[in-house]
Amino acid sequence: MCSAFQGLQGSRVMITTRREDVAALALASRRLQLQPLGRDESFKLFCSRAFHNTPDRKCPPELEKVAGDVVKKCHGLPLTIVSSGSLLSTKQPTQHAWNHMYNHLRSELQANNHAQAILNLSYHDLPGDLRNCFLYCSLFPEDYAMSRENLVRLWVAEGFAMKKDNSAPEEVAEGNLMELIGRNMLEVVERDELFRVSKCKMHDIVRDLALVIAKEERFGSANDQGEMMRVDKEVRRFSTCGWRDSNTVATEVEFPRLRTVISLGATSSSTNMISSVLSGSSYLTVLELQDSAINQLPVSIGNLFNLRYIGLRRTNVQSLPDTIEKLSNLETLDVKQTRIEKLPPGIVKVAKLQHLLADRFADEKQAQFRYFVGVEAPKTISNFKELQTLETVHASKDLSLELKKMSKLQTVWIDDINASNCDDLFKTLSVLPQLSSLLLCACDEKETLSFQALKPMSEKLHRLIIRGGWAAGTLKCPIFKDHGKNLKYLALSWCNLGTEDPLQLLSSHLSALTYLSLNRVSSAGTLVLSAGCFSELKTLVLKSMPDVKQLEIKEGAIPCIDGIYIVSLSELSMVPRGIEALGSLKKLWMLYLHKGFKDDWDQKEMHNKMKHVLEIRA
């Protein structure tokens, strides 16, 4: 969809539906009934998937007949065609292999409709672990954007991804995800700075059919209505978009075989239901209550010996019960954006913990310097020998000594850093061998940190987020001058660069950046993107930079840019010079700028020059 300045001609709003009663609400002249693809279009689409690994994506002559037969059976339905092509792309391109698969397809078509037949064939062609991963995705709500990181942790907790050879379970799980995407059973929604899948989703038709299989195989069920009493008491996994337990007697809810509970956005704050589920489900492995109104976790959770995953993100929980120390198999604890300020001291007994995610919003409008704050780090946090993710903890005087003993750390987020402890802390962070993502936040906006001691030995460090002031000459420090070639993602907030141009300074050291964000950064009045700079940059964010009056984009700058987000630059009164030449640009946000900006846009007739940009917001 294109959303732009008022008066911009050519914008359209399109609504799609598979229900005729919904379509009937529109005038007949405004309704368009999509027809199946023609023979040539169907064959071309099929080949684009079946032969996507070949340079020309063309069907070999010896396979044309069987390929044509397969396409004919799809009756012009795009989802069926793409699924068939994805399935056959995994087979050897021989007549024998393809004819064998086509015979299976014909058998399925005799018993099911076209979509069901293709899904059944695609599903049964999966190895056992991939089948579990696929069915698991159907437990999330329709059109839900699933986080790659979250899926990987859940699959590992469920035992769907085990260590293979030299590959860790997380790496195996990511491989499973890419296999499902390659087979067109999941769709990519968003990618990150390393071009890894960041979010994905399951097509609603595929989900409907997957839920049928999940129920038949007693794998699990999804109750989108949130009515717990309708759930099969023998179910092993269930999900709900928020249960309603006000009229339910707690003793009526017992699931003795239950392994997984996923309840996203439960509207009831009562703990009766969750207490009942926990007391009657001694084999529970996963408890995901993200975005629920729950405000307390029952003490009985400590009895769940098999529990490996707890997700309480964006809930109202204020504290964790001391009994959590009994969860010796717990691998993931996600309490981000809750009200928890301090973790129980006994949590360090959970020796298998791999991912600890904890912070809370101090200012949900994100106007304050420390709009989110971490939790107080447990005194003997180094007991977490297996910990890979640590988000977010306060910088205490003993933290650097503890971190030295935690060699498996990959993601580390630390706030409340002051000038007196930053050297020791940065020296410790520098020697972490697996470090890949780092956030460093000063104790307040007036604190000046020195980054001279930050000399990371890990070449995996690709993401760096810094909030707070820094000493003069920081951009000449090793983290930028020597390690800059490894950085892909850089976000700077509240730092003072005086009258210098940060884009010019950064571009000389950070040629591999794909994401750059500058927020509340003091700088020169004119920012310049020079020819050839940031050759891999996909996303540029400039926000709340009060000094910026002009932005110039030279020919040949940021050639791969996908999105530019210019927000709250109150002095920017002119359209960025050269922006119309960015042929790769797909998204452009220009919000809360100088009042003269719109006049300059209209005067230069930018709406005619920017027709190639799919989304413009202002």
UniProtKB/TrEMBL annotation:
Q: Where are the transmembrane segments?
A: none
Look up the record and give one Gene Ontology term from the biological process aspect.
innate immune response-activating signaling pathway
Q: Which domain of life is it from?
A: Eukaryota
Q: Where is the NB-ARC domain?
A: 8-54
One Pfam annotation reads NB-ARC
- In this chain the Disease resistance protein winged helix domain maps to 139-210
| GO MF term list | ADP binding
Where in the numbering of this chain does the Disease resistance R13L4/SHOC-2-like LRR domain appear?
A: 263-615
Keyword list (alphabetical) reads: Plant defense, Repeat
PANTHER family reported in the protein's UniProt record: DISEASE RESISTANCE PROTEIN RP, OS04G0219600 PROTEIN
What is this protein's record name?
A: NB-ARC domain-containing protein
Q: Which organism is it from?
A: Triticum aestivum
The opening ranks of the lineage are:
Eukaryota, Viridiplantae, Streptophyta, Embryophyta, Tracheophyta
